Sequence to fold (812 residues):
Amino acid sequence: MSIIVMKFGGTSVADIDCIKNVANKVAAQYKKNKKIIVVVSAMSGTTNNLIDLTRQVSKVSNSPEYDVVVSSGEQVTAGLLSIALNSQEIPSRSFMGWQIPVLTDNTFSKANIAEISIDVLMQSLNRNEIAVIPGFQGVTDENQITTLGRGGSDTSAVAIASALNAKRCDIYTDVDGIYTADPRMVPKAKKLDKISYEEMLEMASQGAKVLQTRSVALAMKYKLKIKVLSSFENKEGTLVLHEDEIMEKKNVSGIAFSLDEAKLTVIGIPDKPGQASILFKSLGLKAINVDMIAQSSSANKSATDLSFTVPKNELEEAINTIKSVQKKIGFKSIISDRDVAKISVIGIGMKTQAGVAQKMFDILAEKNINLKVISTSEIKISVLIEAAYMELAARSLHTAFELDES
Amino acid sequence: MSIIVMKFGGTSVADIDCIKNVANKVAAQYKKNKKIIVVVSAMSGTTNNLIDLTRQVSKVSNSPEYDVVVSSGEQVTAGLLSIALNSQEIPSRSFMGWQIPVLTDNTFSKANIAEISIDVLMQSLNRNEIAVIPGFQGVTDENQITTLGRGGSDTSAVAIASALNAKRCDIYTDVDGIYTADPRMVPKAKKLDKISYEEMLEMASQGAKVLQTRSVALAMKYKLKIKVLSSFENKEGTLVLHEDEIMEKKNVSGIAFSLDEAKLTVIGIPDKPGQASILFKSLGLKAINVDMIAQSSSANKSATDLSFTVPKNELEEAINTIKSVQKKIGFKSIISDRDVAKISVIGIGMKTQAGVAQKMFDILAEKNINLKVISTSEIKISVLIEAAYMELAARSLHTAFELDES
Fold:
């Protein structure tokens, strides 16, 4: 019989009533298929409270002891869910990261999973128990507790499912699936039955914050199917899987948008090799994430202008960093623009079907929306526009690419 | 260099300011003596909150998963204290029960310590680290988390100190030592410099709730010195040690009192062997703790009356239990009395010096206080009196036995 891993996030286990609801969902699945592993997050708010406690003592957040404190939230949920299952006469036992063990490196607070032993879990499955595993936590080969960083519970669930060669990893959350666009902004958005890993990765990093990017990348690597579905409603959800398993590949399967970025333009960079390298290296050293990059000739033929986006909350630091290399590079000035939105159309079908970019530009032009920066990948076209037009742009593109709910 | 174990209870680590205060106390001790092990409780209120969460899910409180949940509170404090020490540039690391390991049996929620490995802790000491250990928790030889029951942190500290052959176990709490009587009731009570294990055991079980009985018994077994002192004041505290190390043994070293018991009298028990046995066995099966027992002849020569005390909150269950064996025993009736107080005079010197009981009875008679039940041990005389007289009795005895602060 094949194994199914069920993962429940913080809002799904927010309080005792939610935990009992989760127990009922797990119990129902157990009656259909005895081979169940459950992964849980901390009750919502708990991890933030624990982090806040550590911050009151010290600003350092990548110490081993930070992980000792913040990993405790998941332990509580795992124990409570096992108690809830046991009280329904369903055999269940919790297994902490160190009991399995989930071996990680020693990058405390952002550890990477190195290896998951399956013996303990297989024995538990063979006893027809439901193993409940706190997500987010691991242990080093020197027996120290680690955590995987924010959103690490999705990664735990996918890694455990992959190690056990599970049939599927079901991620229960507070939305009922992946939509063609964020329904709060695009009311006609519709739920997708299926989406490929690549598309999901673009959707996730473009602002559709349902699944952690890291867990999708891991699932893609191991060809593990993920299902995203609601803890609170009995609906079908969305399957995330390999593109080969999606029969009809649409040109465009979703629209993503974000207000999280700001635009920077560095003007009058002397036109000689290596100047962009100095610039981006200085930002890289400060761990500032540069996203869309576009270069254009300046009026002055011997110099160029360079535009790119950085996270809005790192704009000031980015400007200061660039100014610190102004002498070295010899550029003229910097202009910044916080009033921008990024809109992306995403679709695995783009790889083989042309004309998507052209159509996108046409539609935005029809609405008199000016494009500030353009960047493209194999399955995505992103444009930067004035923030005020984001909603109009998203809805127009959603309709034009025939994504609207009929 | 000899090892000192420092233990801090829930009120000593109640919030971040308290934890920083504890870090300062530990740091000061570390500068005098590098060989320090610290044991901590959960932040006050935390364990009760965790227990409450489990109760909302299930009434069962002796399951393995109950221990998974409630042991997490100490983990948080241990991590936070290590962070606080590290932020003062003092090397420190936390060690959970399973990391040491503190091996216990599998009596979940009330586990007994079987063995403590010292290798990991000795290595930590040799690195001049301060090991911070969450009290209350252990692990079975099958790698399951256990807890030692309420107040188990004192027991953890004493057991770890004994295993490490420590010089002393310092128990920091919210009082500054052991007094000749509870100072809230007897204002003239004075702090004792020293007290023997046996006396402390009687004081603890008689209502002076500073140290857990179980931890005192363990310290006595291993001849480990305990010092009770305040987390909040810099005062000397009280040493608990073997009676041989107390030069001047007083007749009476303390007065203990309690309102927690109720009196039961079973009237007209047929005067034949085995009747008391049936009675107390029935109570034992219900785990009802019987304390003071006194038997007297009844008016009827062929029957006796039996008086004894039980915890007030178990009185009703005790009465029902006794009624269930009424036919078998053939007694006439039961009388109960909740309106009673137990007063005890305690002193290791009593073993060799006579007249303490006589003096106690004289003083109570002087004040017209009637004795309902009397029971004695080698180092203690207890009497049951009407509750209203408790304060008067305690203060009079305290003065008469020359315990008053001069």
